Amino acid sequence: MPFINDLKKAHSILWLLLTATLLFSSCDTVKRFLSTDLEEEDYSLGELYVDEYVKEVPYVPTPSAEAKAEGRVNALGIEREEGDNEALYNAIQSWMGTPYQFGGSTKAGVDCSGFVSNIYQEVYQRTLHRVANDMQLDCILISRSELQEGDLVFFTNSKGRVSHVGIFLKNDIFAHSSTSRGVIISRLGDSYWSKHFYKGGRVKDS
Hints:
The chain contains 7 helices and 8 strands; from the N terminus they run H-H-H-H-H-E-E-H-E-E-E-E-E-H-E. It has helices at residues 2-25, 27-34, 42-45, 65-69, 86-93, 112-124, 191-196; strands spanning 105-106, 109-110, 139-142, 152-156, 162-168, 173-178, 182-187, 197-203. The chain has a 6-stranded antiparallel β-sheet with strand order 3-8-4-5-6-7. Strands 1-2 form a two-stranded antiparallel ribbon. It is globular.
């Protein structure tokens, strides 16, 4: 019965290979399943880059020599203006460079909504929804021209669903956790972010 034994062995090997393949190929499926409450948030952030590849170029502040001499430069290296919320800039500075991690919420790795949630809890003592799309429920939606310091900025993916969120600062710049560079400062005016900008969000009074 050598043929039968060989057939059984081949069947066993095939089954092991199939199981291993399914196990590894299902990682993404499992990730989707386990992230039900994060659906369309940072998982979908990857879809922001489906339409066109974007190599994130962080915004580099260039305060004037006068501002530097007078010490009017905040923790992020941005020229300080009257009325700026220093606590906000200091909190963001402490997260700068934190790598992007899907579902992350610590300085070891953080996704976009995790970053925004942490900043809002620390600076404003406010608890927001964990998912970018759901954070709209915490806000009054506003236009880009109405944005003020501390407002949220929402972006859509290629399917038109909100999948990314950041915090507006001033002068057309915002802080966020990008998939390519982690926590950085970017410009709303950059072609990619301008194209995918959806709405601003002013968090409602508790």
